[in-house]
Amino acid sequence: MSATAPERRTLWVVLVLNAAIAAAFLAAGAIADSSALIANGIDNLSDAMVYALSLLALTRGDRWKTRAAMVSGIMLLVFAIGVILDVGRRYLEGSTPVGPMMMIMAAVAGVVNYICLRLLQRLEKPDVNLRAATIFSLNDSISNGGILVAGVLVLWLGSNWPDLLVGFATALIAIKGGIEILRDARGEMRQSKESV
Could you tell me the pLDDT band of residue 1, with boundaries at 50, 70 and 90? Predict the structure, then answer.
């Protein structure tokens, strides 16, 4: 078995799981009129694209892997800006999120993200792309907890502000993750230049 076989298998599993949960989040977000669900759907979709990029990077050199990680970080930042714009639109136009659907989706996604996180944490000596994938799964787990709380508050208060707040917080978590990934990738670039 090659050194990249476990990484490749793990990335394929987390890619498929993230693509599936992204589709579910986007559909549920549209039905439930929820900024938080749509934000997490877009987040999981961008995660799936990054995992596909990471799969390509596995068989290439360190420079390619570092560039792939940098693209991942930039994608997260772009995603965050899109979510902030959507939250602003929903704040101005109004929305009526469905609390129970938010809670159900948060619970299902929580299980999926836990599986992804455990699979990624089992890998030995992860490269910059696999570390980025772990950050994505950790961010998703935090966001799912926020959606669960927001769903309860939306149901209890009959207001859309908890949904908007979680959508905005998801964007902030994505910004933090994107910056961490870019820092890690720059550190890898510096390290490879020093070793030449």
Answer: very low
- The DSSP result for 29-75, as a single string, is HHHHT-HHHHHHHHHHHHHHHHHHHHHHHHTS-HHHHHHHHHHHHHH
Q: How far apart are CA 39 and CA 102, in angstroms?
A: 12
Biggest distance spanned by C-alpha atoms of the chain: 60
The DSSP string of 104-129 is HHHHHHHHHHHHHHHHHHTSSS--HH
Average of per-residue pLDDT across 103-129: 84
Mean pLDDT computed over every residue of the chain = 83
pLDDT value at residue 129: 66
Burial letters 160-173, b for 16+ CB under 10 A, else e = bebbbbbbbbbbeb
Look-up of token digits 């994608």: 75
40-73 pLDDT, tens digit per residue, is 888 788 778 777 877 777 777 667 777 777 887 8
CB 165 within 8 A of CB 134: no
Dig out the tokens for 82 from the structure.
Answer: 């899109």
Rg over alpha carbons for the chain, rounded to the nearest Å, is: 17
Distance CA 152, CA 158 (A): 10
Which tokens go with 65? Answer: 């892997």
